[in-house]
Amino acid sequence: MAVSCSVVRPGHRYQLLRGLTYGLTLAVAIAIPALHWIKLDIPAGVYYLGGDPAPLLKVVKGLLLFAVASALTILGSTYPFGRMFCGWSCPGGQLARLARWLHHGWGKRHRLLRHPVALAVAFGGALICLNWFTHLSVLWEQGQPGFVGAWRWAAVLTVIFYVEGLWLGFFWCERVCPYGWYLGIMAQDNRLRIAFSDPEEVCGGCAACAKACPVELDPRADDFAADKCLTCGTCLDTCDAIFARRDGTPPLGWAHRMRSAALLAAGGEKRNPPRATGHR
């Protein structure tokens, strides 16, 4: 029998961890050009590699090597962790979360504030991108070469990020992002996944976990699409917040697919088997 649930906000365990990983991603994206490890100052015609000026071709090779290494790392993480990069580190994924929050996390009185917040975040993202290709000081000194071009690119990127952050949400991830294309074409069989196990029948059927999911999945469903799950832990945080006020062990947790298959072969539950490792 379904019961109502007064808890509408998820807990903060995985939210804090996601914040840390996303902050680390941003720090790397800012530090590499800021410290001139890789930077193309196109208006000034000066290029940097390893902190020192270098020929353009050498810097471009370094940038491509960094891009390829990053892509291989991301693709390599898909097999063991699924879409965890999308849920934990990808700036596009964070913008999609921002879109969800701006649309559903604000009261009616404050909805007009969505636009300045989205614009501020979008402009910050534009500055991070521009920092790879010019010194940001060019934006504040009108006489410098590239002043007009830098502001044009800042405007274009701000509009793109604003539209994504306020309107597109996870549509961007699924239909525009090349990594989303890859995941949509290639069948993913990730090892780590969310599992639902309720032998004690403590789940009240409030569906708070499904409502909290950023990609609108129901981790309790028999047809739960693990290949679309971001393994972000939002549903786990929500379940934890509910059971902090109720008796019983939260029925949602992490599971390892190989362990799950072994349990099923041994005659375990037909639905998601018990967690291989608890998240509490």
What is shown here, in short?
With 280 residues, the chain is mainly α. The chain has a domain at 91-176. It contains 11 helices and 5 strands, in the order αβββαααααααβααβα.
Envelope shape: globular
Largest sheet: 3 strands, antiparallel
According to DSSP, the number of beta strands is: 5
Helix content: 40-55%
Q: Which stretches are poorly predicted, pLDDT < 50 over at least 5 residues?
A: 1-8, 257-280
Name the beta content range.
Answer: 5-15%
**Helical run tally:** 11
SSE run: HEEEHHHHHHHEHHEH
How far apart are the termini?
26 Å
Radius of gyration (Å): 22 Å
Task: Look at the helices and sheets and give the structural class.
Answer: mainly alpha
Overall pLDDT: 78
Side by side, the strands of the main sheet go 1-2-3
Give a verbal description of the structure:
- The protein has about 280 residues and is mainly alpha-helical.
- It has a domain at about 90-175.
- The protein is about 50% helix and about 5% strand.
- It is built from eleven helices and five strands.
- The chain has helices at about 15-35, 55-80, 85-90, 90-105, 115-130, 145-170, 170-175, 180-185, 210, 235-245, 255-265, and strands at about 40, 45-50, 50-55, 190-195, 250-255.
- The strands form two sheets. A three-stranded antiparallel sheet has the order 1-2-3, with helices on both faces. It has a two-stranded antiparallel ribbon with strand order 4-5.
- A hairpin with a 4-residue loop joins strand 1 (about 40) and strand 2 (about 45-50).
- Helix 4 crosses helix 6, helix 4 packs antiparallel against helix 7 and helix 7 crosses helix 8 (about 180-185).
- It is globular and about 70 Å long.
